[in-house]
Specification:
The chain is α/β, with parallel strands linked by helices. It folds into two domains: 10-229 and 433-482, Aldehyde Dehydrogenase, Chain A, domain 1 (3-Layer(aba) Sandwich), CATH 3.40.605; 235-410, Aldehyde Dehydrogenase, Chain A, domain 2 (3-Layer(aba) Sandwich), CATH 3.40.309.10. It contains 14 helices and 17 strands. The strands form three sheets. Strands 10-11-12-9-8-13-14 form a seven-stranded mixed beta sheet, sandwiched between helices. Strands 15-2-1-16-17 form a five-stranded mixed beta sheet, with no helix packed on it. Strands 5-4-3-6-7 form a five-stranded parallel beta sheet, with helices on both faces. A hairpin with a 2-residue loop joins strand 16 and strand 17. Helix 1 packs across helix 6 (185-193), helix 3 runs parallel beside helix 4 (134-142) and helix 8 packs parallel to helix 9. The longest helix has 30 residues, at 29-58. The protein is globular.
Length: 483
């Protein structure tokens, strides 16, 4: 196995991807499925070499990172299954109806690859949202070459993982230029503006993602930029839920917002709790189980410190549990803060700002009106969660939260995103810049575009659109679904 990969300049990597694009698009779904499985197998085989590098660079525990490799290879294999299923192509055929008014031509439609994709790695998942993560897997599955911009927080791991990916793809027969790696902030800016790049995928900060989004939108030929950005993931706990199982809910909350030192994009950042129900005391008691852990990198350390300073200094915020010391900035103790729904409605910009790290804000509400006014101030998030007693009517809460989130939970906690066919990991702005998911089978949809053939001779049609359906793909013909 090659230990490292030769990194290219952004123009070199984009040019190689552009040259490979028609070759990659022309490969069969079965070929690409085998590519993905080859990469998955290679990563599993290299796990013992890669995980120690990840531990060193990210400060995350070995067990967590070992499991993350499994998640990463599982994603690759899921997209191999998506390719073999073929329903993602959305094949639709409408036969000609000459005597219709107006006459209807023959129309045959399917989804086709968009072209080279720039993928920007995340810091908090060094495998699953990085070089060989879901963005790379879904783009390759779609038939698009990929250029990854390595994250500076785990640069050596990125190089080694990229070497594994590149070698596996080459061994499986993928064309040169199917996969490349670039490094550095400036390279990332240049990459998204290169004419060969047709879309971008990003997981990271609101400021960084917005800057790249603006570059992608400001090109002479604008391109889509699928960014996962900030999210506070609101939780609502009802009084009946506290009465029924308050201690368990408090323990679950602490476990969720401290998981991975609070560095999950689905961390419950704000929790609406009934005033005078005793839930805050239960949370404070559960905080005895919480442990400090190192943050991923200095940028996150600085950002968390600044965010806590701003939030704790707000006159409407008080400390419920935990403590803060500058001496422990790199591994801060978890904190629970509190304010009221009335204050949130009055100053949402300050009180609902995302603070990436081990902190959550309890928002007290005294009435249904208080709760609804506080929730109305919440912007788009990846998730929303409702904790209610069994049989309690939560239809009104559902109606308020559903327009604000991409995944709505009834019980449970949002940290932990299953990689499945039905998963949606996205949400309204500022959670993401699009309506698409970055996790799950339908993540492939980001890197596909519709193409319709009208009155085309059989000889030019892709096999998926031919009348005989030689590949046996699912399709809708004259309005009826055929599987």
């Amino acid at each position: 196995m090659t230990d490292t990969i030769t990194t290219l300049t952004a123009p070199e990597a984009a040019a190689a991807a552009g040259a490979a694009a028609p070759l990659v698009a022309a490969t069969s779904r079965e070929e690409r499925a085998r590519w993905l499985e080859a990469v998955a197998d290679a990563l599993d085989a290299a796990k013992a070499d890669l995980v120690p590098v990840a531990v060193e660079e990210s400060h995350l525990p070995e067990a967590r990172l070992t499991g993350e490799v499994g998640r990463t290879t599982g994603q690759l294999r899921l997209f191999a299954a998506v390719l073999r299923d073929a329903a993602y192509l959305e094949v639709i055929i409408d036969h000609a109806v000459p005597d219709a008014t107006p006459p209807q031509p023959e129309l045959r439609r399917m989804l086709v690859p968009t072209g080279p994709v720039a993928v920007y790695s995340a810091s908090n998942f060094p495998f699953a949202f990085s070089v060989a993560g879901g963005d790379t897997a879904s783009a390759l599955a779609a038939g698009c070459p990929v250029v990854v911009k390595a994250h500076s927080g785990h640069l050596e791991l990125s190089r080694r993982t990229a070497a594994v990916v590149a070698e596996a793809l080459a061994g499986a027969g993928a064309p040169h230029g199917t996969f490349g790696l670039v490094e550095g902030t400036q390279a990332g800016r240049v990459l998204i503006q290169d004419p060969a790049i047709t879309s971008g995928a990003f997981t990271g900060s609101l400021s960084g993602g917005r800057a790249l989004f603006d570059l992608a939108s400001g090109r002479p030929t604008p391109i889509p930029f699928y960014a996962e950005l900030g999210s506070i993931n609101p939780v609502v706990v009802t009084a009946d839920a506290v009465a029924a199982d308050g201690a368990s809910l408090a323990s679950g909350l602490v476990g969720s917002f401290t998981l991975g030192a609070g560095q999950f994009c689905t961390k419950p950042g704000v929790v609406f709790v009934p005033a005078e129900a005793g839930f805050e005391d239960l949370v404070a008691e559960a905080m005895g189980e919480a442990k400090a852990a190192p943050l991923l990198n200095q940028r996150i350390v600085d950002g968390f410190g600044h965010g806590i300073d701003q939030l704790a200094a707000h006159p409407a915020v008080e400390l419920v549990a935990g403590s803060r010391s500058d001496a422990d900035a790199e591994a801060p103790a978890p904190l629970v803060l509190a304010t009221s729904a009335t204050e949130v409605a009055a100053d949402p910009e300050a009180l609902l700002a995302e603070c990436f790290g081990p902190v959550t804000l309890l928002i007290r509400y005294g009435s249904k009106g208080d709760l609804e006014s506080g929730l109305a101030a919440v912007q788009g998030s990846l998730t929303g969660t409702i904790h209610a007693a069994e049989g309690e009517d939560v239809s009104a809460l559902t109606a308020v939260l559903a327009p604000r989130v991409g995944r709505l939970l009834f019980g449970g906690w949002p940290t932990g995103v299953a990689v499945t066919w039905s998963q949606h990991h996205g949400g309204p702005w500022p959670a993401t810049t699009s309506v698409h998911t970055s996790v799950g089978a339908t993540a492939i949809r980001r890197f596909l575009r519709p193409l319709t053939y009208q009155d085309a001779p059989e000889s030019v049609l892709p096999d998926e659109l031919k009348e005989s359906n030689p590949l046996g793909v699912p399709r809708r013909v004259d309005g009826s679904l055929e599987v």
